[in-house]
């Protein structure tokens, strides 16, 4: 367990990380870019979803977001001021192929090329994600991720982007949080495209995995076999309500299969968990898996991206009481396909503004467990952060003590994992900027930099100043590798 009293200062916290450990931040295209009708960009499923009445808080959209499309140079300068060494951003597929296939939009490629060059000029390593949920709307009109064709089109798109940027990109992330894309988009309907079709959700799981594999092959076909490949998975850390109750232990197994192993095992081992297939047998027979798919899914990773925010409690549900809805999905359709026997009782406080519990020990547990299961696979924290209300004082300084505490405690949790032998190579805080928080609109702020949505003014919060101080302390005290950004040959984090 992390003792925060020992890591209160940036210097003492930074000292717990090895030389060469990289620091950065992450964002996503639809959440920050705006400019949805500019530069040749086509519509995405999130444009359609956010413009559908009742889908987002206050009917808010990403049409403008935080205007990164026009302000990217200032944002890169801000990253440099914070001392960031890596920046994870996502490429909007509809900027590259407005219809999701066929003709390539050169304006879109040029936009990201300028961004990559701007980052490199500041000594910031670009880490692009190829899919962070903004599927071109014409592909959804043709069936979306439940259709195999979407995975094939993703591979084409990945090859186009890699051919244009591959000489400057050390690490590609294919997908962000396919759990959300499949289950929240096609089973629960709370994310775009807003469908509630459990069988379609399971088909989407496979075709997202297939897209990762085929996309990875397409990247290496043009960027070389040495191209770094990863995926950013949002791992769940489920714990039983009663560790002595075998039914609650089975609930943990079910959630782990649906949330974690449904993606990690095919990517790493080229197989689907047998228990997952049994759990969803009433919904699908996995007939969407074709010969050769599993080999493609297991295209070797060089890095595993880990997204972590909170843990959860699960227990067996027998129908004798109202189902607990502490998983945040209320009385609507459930994202948990084939898990009618599982419920999520409330977790103990503290909680973030999202209602998620604060559990840094769960972060350590996750990282250590992943490294033990796949000891030869380096880990990169691709997202970790928290939403809290900010306080802006009379002088314009932004105070966010709860987010600052969350950041310190979770950095300490990463250090604990390193001490326990986990191979973690870097940390990307979520998020660089306040932004459009999907169905929550602009009501939840995750940024270490505050954005005034009326003026688009950026202000570094206390949490951002703390993070910059940790990075600077590590640079000064971390040895040659940390100062130069050098890393051993073959590492792609």
From TrEMBL:
<feature type="active site" description="Nucleophile">
    <location>
        <position position="383"/>
    </location>
</feature>
<dbReference type="GO" id="GO:0005829">
    <property type="term" value="C:cytosol"/>
</dbReference>
<keyword id="KW-0624">Polysaccharide degradation</keyword>
<feature type="binding site">
    <location>
        <position position="132"/>
    </location>
    <ligand>
        <name>substrate</name>
    </ligand>
</feature>
<dbReference type="InterPro" id="IPR017853">
    <property type="entry name" value="GH"/>
</dbReference>
<keyword id="KW-0136">Cellulose degradation</keyword>
<feature type="binding site">
    <location>
        <begin position="437"/>
        <end position="438"/>
    </location>
    <ligand>
        <name>substrate</name>
    </ligand>
</feature>
<keyword id="KW-0119">Carbohydrate metabolism</keyword>
<protein>
    <recommendedName>
        <fullName>Beta-glucosidase</fullName>
        <ecNumber>3.2.1.21</ecNumber>
    </recommendedName>
</protein>
<feature type="binding site">
    <location>
        <position position="430"/>
    </location>
    <ligand>
        <name>substrate</name>
    </ligand>
</feature>
<feature type="binding site">
    <location>
        <position position="176"/>
    </location>
    <ligand>
        <name>substrate</name>
    </ligand>
</feature>
<feature type="binding site">
    <location>
        <position position="31"/>
    </location>
    <ligand>
        <name>substrate</name>
    </ligand>
</feature>
<keyword id="KW-0326">Glycosidase</keyword>
<comment type="similarity">
    <text>Belongs to the glycosyl hydrolase 1 family.</text>
</comment>
<dbReference type="InterPro" id="IPR001360">
    <property type="entry name" value="Glyco_hydro_1"/>
</dbReference>
<feature type="active site" description="Proton donor">
    <location>
        <position position="177"/>
    </location>
</feature>
<feature type="binding site">
    <location>
        <position position="309"/>
    </location>
    <ligand>
        <name>substrate</name>
    </ligand>
</feature>
<dbReference type="GO" id="GO:0008422">
    <property type="term" value="F:beta-glucosidase activity"/>
</dbReference>
<keyword id="KW-0378">Hydrolase</keyword>
<dbReference type="InterPro" id="IPR033132">
    <property type="entry name" value="GH_1_N_CS"/>
</dbReference>
<dbReference type="InterPro" id="IPR017736">
    <property type="entry name" value="Glyco_hydro_1_beta-glucosidase"/>
</dbReference>
<dbReference type="Pfam" id="PF00232">
    <property type="entry name" value="Glyco_hydro_1"/>
</dbReference>
<dbReference type="GO" id="GO:0030245">
    <property type="term" value="P:cellulose catabolic process"/>
</dbReference>
